[in-house]
Specification:
Chain lengths: ~475, ~475
């Protein structure tokens, strides 16, 4: 009984027991998540205000520091000051650290909230049905933290290596500077942060697949969400035969939205002289591919967003609002939430009663949770856009794009963020914070409050939010 | 047994039996409604193309005739040609006739579909619960038709009289011309049609309460919906002690939206030199009151819509999308649909399971019906706005406003409708048709398809759509 394996197992049981005792008993575990993010932003703001953080060695205005800290911790990428121009290398490192903390924090905390929901649901389920229907068989907090760190390090390391090689060989940077550029952009990409050390983001690399493709791969992996990565990992190690409903819905919806995004971008922008018009066909395809995926919710751009056709902007608004996978570094209401609502409506229009998704029945309470997340999110964006129109001279297309970008923690910008009055920038700060934590905490708070229900059929619940 | 009362009762029972036999047995009674409206539009288009219909005595292009006929039958009010400038008195009379047919048709048909839903629901209800919980105790088809005709005639007659008096005494029109103007605007107002014999709608009367207030009263009465008017009528005759859930939700939501609409309009436009800025305080208040109510969904304007602040336009977009009361001449998704969703979300956020509205429990199936109507409607507006942006150079704020105005059969316009290419105008034709009939037919089709359910608690269902 005192073998390392047994001791390890006992330790894991103790952690699991402790986590069961700590988290579900505290009335709103989501509150801890909110407090943690607020603290990280506060510390980041103070650090960024220090003279050492700015290129000029002067104190940065608190609104600019707060905006940048929020944008970094919430892995958004909207900026009010030029990242390479305003911040010193120390300031850039603070930004990079906050991105890493924010991305790591959201992946672990969202995974744990998801586990908590799955466990509660699982306990009720056991009366009647399979335990294998739980979406999140993630084990315990320790394995989540270890898994997130492992995935983050591997992806960021590989991406850093590829980017550093390219910056050295293709652009003649010194190895040291290329490694710095590679690390910054790799961490920013995997965490879907959208921060770049180039003032024009990746516009200068629009036709370079050696920069663009590693970035896309990194932000797609980060944006799929840890539970899906965890399942992929288990399949790759042949430990698991089936896909959970959550993974199938996430991957299917993600792929569908990617195809729609790329197709829309290519068709609306193909001849636009401000965007794809000046590239050859391979360049158009690469930039179109990049921008079809970036709204979910990486935030890098390889063409000038301010030059987009209004139709592209509207499609991008919708894609940014939907966002990426649950419990990952992507934002938005999440692809599963969107897919659930789509299935509910499809069921309703077909005149059927029970919502079936890919051979599973969807619990009725989940319909309403998904609806709530979508409509509360839409309401937030509406109020923010309205406030920005009152506070600034910009019109609907511009303020809506910026609001959705902030809510979805995307970071794409038509360029108005830095021109907004400070009150408008503070609106975006609130929106980034609410957009980063709102869907996750709202959905888990709703799910954890379900009480006194009896399930008389096998059901499976994907993650909402 | 052969007293007039008994014979009348037997006749009513026969009608009721026949209506039960005819309507529920045909698989989609909603199809008849759609066919009837399409036929009316086709006839109207042909009539408007006749040379006698135009001021110049020439054939009107089919797109212009189709657009005007659709706008009139769907009681929208968007125009591609200037109503007084393009159409002859005969043409104007055709428009007026189509408005009357469209308004009468939608009120009776929507009321009947609502009855059908209530009856099906009522039959199932009787197993367990009160029959008095039915929202629509309207009796039968005959009483609906008679009621709609009575209300229409009374309101239109009174409004015509007041307007005619004002046009004669206040503006020096001949009695004959004043009566024509009075009749046209009274019918247009009661049916929420938004057509005017003045090229600038009611802008010249913005500060004249003798024109504006009768118009507001007429379009509010028409827009509340026949079931609510019917209940008000019964209460006025002391035949009924309680309000149905449908009436309470409609009146409460209508009033709330009116207050929000007026407050938003006054605060965003108070000093706008293009709109309220040039009026004194009483004029500002009158025009603000008018425009706070017009988006639900009358379509008249007393200030230049093209000069509105972007924030006012966005608020108006939402109000136009919500629209007015069910089974009336107003469009949109209807105030009850909006209120139901709001209550569902409020319940969810509160962590409660059952949705209670004003002391009644809301059937779970209704949640999904309301959701479907809202999201399908939103999807239509999105696709239309996207199409208009591809087809024309106009930007999001303008095309969204025009799309929502068409979908909600509102008729307010920033002025771009007549400048759109014909393909864009045809998009609006489809949108007006879908917006007029979609929510009603979709909601009733969904409700009529509910099968095999058992209710074990007293429930009451307001009308969705
Ligand atoms: K981002
Ligand atoms: K109208």
């Amino acid at each position: 009984m005192s073998s390392p394996v047994a001791r390890g197992a006992a330790w894991l049981r103790r952690i699991a027991r402790r986590s069961r005792r700590l988290l579900p008993d505290s009335k709103h575990p989501a509150q801890m998540v909110v407090a943690g993010f607020a603290l990280a932003i506060a510390v980041g703001t103070v650090l960024l205000m220090l003279p050492i953080s700015s290129e000029t060695g002067t104190v940065t205005h608190w609104v600019n520091a707060l905006f940048t800290a929020t944008s970094a911790v919430c892995v958004t990428g909207l900026v009010v000051v030029d990242t390479p121009g305003h911040w010193s290398t120390f300031g850039e490192s603070v930004v990079l650290g906050m991105i890493q903390i924010g991305g790591f924090g959201i992946m672990t905390l969202a995974s744990m909230l998801g586990m908590l929901v799955a466990r509660r649901f699982g306990l009720r389920m056991r009366r009647t049905a399979q335990t294998e229907t739980k979406s999140l068989g993630l084990g315990d907090i320790r394995s989540v933290v270890a898994g997130v760190i492992t995935v983050s390090l591997i992806v960021e390391l590989v991406t850093t290596t590829v980017l550093t090689t390219r910056f050295t060989l293709g652009y003649g940077e010194s190895l040291q500077h290329a490694a710095y550029l590679g690390l910054f952009h790799a961490v920013s990409a995997f965490n879907n942060a959208g921060f770049s050390l180039y003032s024009d983001s990746l516009v200068r690399f629009a036709t370079d697949p050696w920069i663009c493709l590693p970035m896309v791969i990194a932000f797609v992996i980060g944006g799929l969400g840890f539970p899906v990565l965890f399942e992929i990992g288990r399949r790759l190690r042949h430990q698991r035969r089936y896909w959970s409903l959550h993974a199938r819905v996430t991957l299917g919806t993600y792929a569908t939205l990617a195809v729609i995004g790329v197709a829309a971008f290519l068709s609306f922008e193909w001849n636009n002289p401000g965007t794809l018009g000046r590239f050859g066909v391979p360049g158009k395809l690469l930039a179109g591919f990049f921008h079809g995926l970036a709204p979910r919710t990486a935030g890098f751009n390889s063409v000038d967003v301010g030059e987009l056709h209004p139709a592209t902007m509207l499609v991008t608004d919708v894609l940014m609002f939907i966002g990426g996978g649950s419990a990952g570094t992507a934002g938005g209401i999440k692809v599963t939430t969107f897919a659930l609502l789509a299935f509910v409506i499809l069921t309703e229009v077909r005149g059927e009663t029970n919502v079936h998704i890919l051979g599973r029945k969807l619990p009725v309470v989940v319909h309403r949770q998904a609806l709530t997340v979508v409509l509360v999110g839409g309401g937030l964006v509406f109020v923010a856009a309205l406030a920005l129109m009152v506070l600034s001279p910009f019109r609907l297309d511009a303020v809506l794009f910026e609001s959705v970008s902030a809510f979805g923690t995307v970071g794409l910008s038509t360029g108005i963020t830095s021109q907004l009055p400070q009150a408008g920038q503070l609106v975006l700060v609130l929106l980034m914070f609410a957009g980063r934590l709102g869907p996750i905490t709202l959905a888990s708070a709703l799910a954890l409050r379900e009480r006194g229900r009896r399930y008389d059929f096998p059901e499976e619940r994907p993650i909402v939010g």
